[in-house]
Amino acid sequence: MTADLFLINVAFYVVGAIALVGALIAVTAQNILRAALGLIVSFIGVAGVYFVLEAEFLGVVQILIYVGAIAVLILFAVMLTRGLMRGTGSAYNTQWMGAAFIALILFLLLGVVALGTRWNVVPRQVGDDVIPQIGTELMTTYLLPFEARSLLLLAVLVGAIVIARE
Amino acid sequence: MMIPLNFYLLLAAGLFCLGLFGALARRNAIGILIGIELMLNAVNINLIAFWRYIQPADPSMALAGQIFALFVITLAAAEAAIGLALVIAIYRSRDTVNVEDVNLMKW
To answer: For the domain with range B5-94, which CATH number is right: 1.10.287.3510, 3.30.750.24, 3.40.50.300, 1.10.3720.10?
Structure first.
């Protein structure tokens, strides 16, 4: 039992570090292709965080949709628009110091809130039937948002084709 | 000893702020989209961590955190598809993906 818990704790630090290092590459890499690859590493780390949190369904969805679809989409866009950004100086605009300052301030603020708040923590026992429950909830309680989402995806499908077509 | 909730919130805050920096400071439009995707991921970590660690008073909302994270993933996919289609359209008409050069509507 304690050995399992220890392994889970180690796994949290490993996947958290993967997510943060990938994100760091994604925002600091000079080459946009390298940034996109760092983003994939970060997505895989985040999927690992979901597995540590025992949200297996979300972890698998994360890998399928983010790593499988969104990352490939971004790589395609990078390949289609490459060439012009090569050797055109800094990857950042002239206000990057202000942006870094704002991000740092926000991180300190969020850190103070996250560490200073007394959360009413009651960890749940995650059963084996969470995935069937998600399916049932989507078809009953959350049916309207679910259908709205499918409509949104249809609109995006048509919109993306119309916008990107010559 | 389980990992405390605070650690997940700190991880999510770090990811969010890295994404925010990327979205604000990048010159490449695709770099901005990458930053936005990182921010959406950070929000999802928060949703799942709260789902795991805090029980809602209403038992029918027991899975709300996971369902909401699924909705966020759908919206992220939609945002990426439309955003990248716009980037490709701008590249076709103006031969650049540098957002500083796409300033026709800037006052």
So the answer is: 1.10.287.3510
